[in-house]
Structure formats: C-alpha cells, structure tokens
Amino acid sequence: MKTKTFLFYCLAVLMGGCIPVVSLQPLFTGEGLAFDEKLLGAWADEVTWEFARLEAGDASEMLPEELKDQHDKVYRLNITDEDGRKGSFVACLIQIGEKRFLDIFPDKFPEGGQDPEQMKLLYNVFLFLRVHTFAKVDSVGDELKLRLTDDDEFEKLVEAEPTAVKYAMVEDRPVLTASTQELRAFIAKYADDERLFATELVLPRKEK
C-alpha cells in the first residue's frame, strides 16, 4: 500500500471512518473559550481519546499566541489507536449559540521520516501545517458523543449550495479558506446538517 493511501486509511480509522474536512483558520477567536471539566479523562472503543488540561509552560510548537495566556481553558488531546499509533493535539471547546464544538489542531510535528511504521505521532502528519478540524459535541456523560466532518459529505453540501462557505480543493480534498467569523456563521447555520457533521462517534468513558 502506498504511504499516502496508508496514511489516509489510518486517519479514517482514527476519526470514526471518515476523512475530516480541514480549515486554514480556527473556530476560536481568543476570547470566550468554554471549558468543561467533564470532558477531562479518557474515552475509548478501539481508539482512545484522552483529554487533559494544558499546563502552563507546556511545550507546544504550534500553539497560537492568543491561547498561551488561556492555557487553563485549553485541552491537550492525545489519540491512540488499537495498534499503539499516536497523535498529539490541542483542542479548544467553543460555544456558538446553544451548541458546542471542538477545534482540534496538532501541537507537534511528527518525527521519524517518511516511513509510517517508524513515524512518531503518526496522526499529526495529516495536519502537518497548523490547520484545524472541527467536531460537534453532542453530549458528555458516561459516553462522549461527537459528530465529525466528512469530506465526501461536505462536497455534497457545497455542490448543492456553492456559496455556503469559502473553500479550495487541494489534491482532491476540500480545505476551508473562510475567515474565523465566516466559519462561525457557517457552522451555526449548518450545525444540524448531516452533510457537515456527518459521522457520529460514541466513546464510552474509560475507567481509571
């Protein structure tokens, strides 16, 4: 299997069977970040999502300046698949209207060259630049219920509604190019549209 195909296959496994849509701009504005203590901890089926509070002085190669003074409202997210492959991310919880969303982006560059079998933080390679992907948070309780974007479903949305949001196709994958304010308006309007948040991911809380 070619390296690129293998990586996209891994990403689909990691993200609940979908290739997520990425954005050049964040969903957060640097003000008004939400924080929910109930999100802290590990959530797992075949893949484990572990949320921890980002500590002061936590080394992050890609943390934006506007977040460095708000580390107490920012999560570190470590994702590990059943084969032990890892990704290390920063996650911000954002309230838009009555709904909550996660803005997820990498905090480190992957190491280990181009061989996926040797690469540390394999999943960071998909977001090698500081691009963002978004998830809708449906509920946090005994289970963490998220809805994730899917690039195939997103393409159906923008084919039907070409002016819904600004984007570009990069190597046959959609990349959002809208500003933060435009993104927030777009997500507020289409939050319940399954062409945007197409894939449900349900993760039971992992016992300590």
Report on the structure:
The structure is a single chain. The protein has about 210 residues and is an alpha+beta fold. It has one domain. About 20% of the residues lie in helices and about 35% in strands. It has 4 helices and 11 strands. The strands form 2 sheets. It has an 8-stranded antiparallel beta sheet. Strands 1-10-9 form a 3-stranded mixed beta sheet, with helices on one face. Strand 7 and strand 8 form a beta hairpin. The longest helix has 12 residues. It starts with a helix and ends with a strand. The N terminus is likely disordered.
Terminal-residue CA separation: 37 Å
The rounded Rg comes to 16 Å
Structural class comes to: alpha+beta
Low-confidence stretches: 1-9
Number of helices, where a helix is a run of at least 4 consecutive DSSP H or I residues: 4
Largest beta-sheet details: 8 strands, antiparallel
Mean pLDDT: 82
Work out the strand percent: 25-35%
Keywords:
208 residues; alpha+beta; 8-stranded antiparallel β-sheet; 3-stranded mixed β-sheet; 18% helix; 33% strand; globular; disordered N terminus
